[in-house]
Amino acid sequence: MKKILALMITLLITMAGCMSDEEQFTEYTDEPTMVYQGWDNQSFQFWNVMPMSAGNMSSLNMNNTTGVMNITLELQAFFHEPSLWEQGHVNYALSQNNETLFEVELNNGQEIFYINLTNITGNITVEILSSGSDNATNSEPGDFFIAKAKYEVYGE
């Protein structure tokens, strides 16, 4: 009888640890590591009465890393509608090795774009082309755009 009682007490003590409400496990996450962060800000305002164009090329650096690039682009534009020629615009494009990865054109307003580029090696080319003018007969500002880009590079 004493042997059975000793065996039951041992079993109860052993099982008491298994009856906990909390699950005991270790969570492993395979989160990529951010290796580089940068900003690319561009803007232009037209002060001429006749239409003209402006352009700019820059590069987003991958910092010698292969991986994922997340870009948050905030694009703001104002182009009035002249009576003698077409309304101006801004065109924002991302490319790599002559392949367009992202492109947007905006005449008026403000928009935010979230761009995720995967398996990227090398730099990304940013090309901004715009055309506009200023209407001296009204109180509105000259045509303009503002492009703010924040990019983060995650290694694989």
Describe the 3D structure.
- With 156 residues, this protein is mainly beta.
- The chain has a single domain (32-151), classed as Jelly Rolls, CATH 2.60.120.
- It is built from one helix and eight strands; from the N terminus they run αββββββββ.
- The strands form two sheets. Strands 1-8-3-6 form a four-stranded antiparallel beta sheet, with no helix packed on it. It has a four-stranded antiparallel beta sheet with strand order 2-7-4-5, with no helix packed on it.
- The longest helix has 15 residues, at 2-16.
- The termini are far apart.
- The model has no long low-confidence stretch (mean pLDDT 82).
Q: Which terms would index this structure?
A:
mainly beta, four-stranded antiparallel sheet, elongated, 156 residues, Jelly Rolls, 1 helix
Quick take:
By secondary structure, the protein is mostly beta strands. The protein has one helix at residues 2-16; strands spanning 33-45, 52-60, 67-78, 89-96, 99-106, 108-120, 124-132, 144-155.
CATH architecture field: Sandwich
The CATH class label is: Mainly Beta
H/E element sequence: HEEEEEEEE
**How would you state the average pLDDT, rounded?**
82
Biggest sheet, strands in spatial order? 1-8-3-6
What CATH calls the topology is: Jelly Rolls
* Parts with pLDDT < 50 across at least 5 consecutive residues: none
Helix content: under 10%
Number of helices: 1
Number of domains: 1
Give a count of the beta strands, DSSP E runs of length 2 or more: 8
Structural class label: mainly beta
Major β-sheet annotation: 4 strands, antiparallel
Tell me which oligomeric state these chains represent: single chain
Rounded radius of gyration (Å): 29 Å
* Tertiary shape: elongated
Report the portion of residues in β strands: over 45%
Distance between the termini: 63 Å
